[in-house]
Description:
Layout: H1 2-15, E1 33-39, H2 53-60, E2 63-65, E3 68-69, H3 76-85, H4 89-92, E4 98-101, E5 106-109, H5 113-116, H6 127-133, E6 138-141, E7 157-158, H7 167-178, E8 188-193, H8 195-203, H9 208-230, E9 237-242, E10 248-249, E11 255-257, E12 267-271, E13 275-280, H10 285-292, E14 299-303, E15 322-326, E16 331-333, H11 335-341, E17 347-348, E18 362-365, E19 373-375, E20 378-379, H12 383-391
Amino acid sequence: MNRLISLALLVLSAACQHAPAASTPAPAVSARTVLLVSLDGFRADYIRRPGAMRLRALAASGVRAERMLPAFPSKTFPNHYTLVTGLRPEHHGIVANTMWDGVIGRKFTISDTAVTHDPRWWGGEPLWVTVENQGKRAASFFWVGSDIKINGRLPTWFRTYDAKVPNETRVSTVLDWMAMPAGTGPAFISTYFSDLDDAGHRYGPEAPQVDSAIARVDLLIGSLVDGIAARGLAGQVDVIVVSDHGMVSLAPDRVICLDDYIDLARVEIVDITPVGAISPEPEYEAEAFARLKGAHPHMQVYRKGEIPERFHFNTHPRITKLVTVADEGWTMTTRALVQRNGLPKGGAHGYDNQLSSMGALFVASGPDFKQGILVPPFQNIHVYELLARLLGVRPAPNDGSMDSTRSFLRRTP
């Protein structure tokens, strides 16, 4: 009951754009280092491809999930922030890569850092804040939100995102952080690589270029694991490798043009595919919903508050009055966008989070994890609680629990 009350209060706080109170200091400090690595767009089944040799070896020495279920929508910013807060997007507020907030009065797009660095967008408490509030230190060489002062705090060490920074620089810096004298370095480190997402979007998940990207990021994982061992830290570091979502192929004949059904002059399309965020004029809302309802066999439309419960996507103010969801591999667009950008090709994500094609990677190995365990699919909201337990810090209120991950561990740290 106390947990439900805490979560209810958190949801109300997020809706009002208030930051939750800082955690009280933890009484104990663990010497363990926890490394969280994101391979953006690494679909769960990619690990079976030839290039993922080091990842398979890491999984054999620890725990792998058949797949990890991303939060809905299965997009990059919502899911990276879910992984480090344990909150679903409707609770932490990053409900899409592109969104509108009426109080802030701005449109959020992931390329507009002047807007995204406004802390009012970011609800909940990311793990680096949890760690820093409880007497430990955190470091991040790129993670969604880690270069933004959320709840008044930043990691002790962080880098502002720059896609041009070589992956090898990220690896060497992470290893340098780990090698700092005992008691002076970070307990929690996060880092991020985008190669798979870039290749998947451009070429599609079945392309040979994706196989090349798998091999590249696999080498990075090998460099991290080998670097940890070379520094004599293998028995002191838990390594968790995750992704945010999977990827599915697009096709030029799987297109839905919204202007075939509604008057675009009477709606604001905040985001369009594969989850459409549509704000109609108030007097046009009922008509727009009626026109979209059943308009295309591969598109669903919902009113806010009536979106299926399994999506957990109804409550936050940034969710628009109408939400459209395309079927797997379909693209929602407009005729003007097709004329400007051409027909869809390559790959995409953001679809129903329970689709196997949207399944994300989860591999964990280290002194706290069992060896050679394959676990059933589980939701990524549970990763935050797991990380907090490994670090010996009290988690902030969140949507996850240890119930789905306790069996991964040799013992309770």
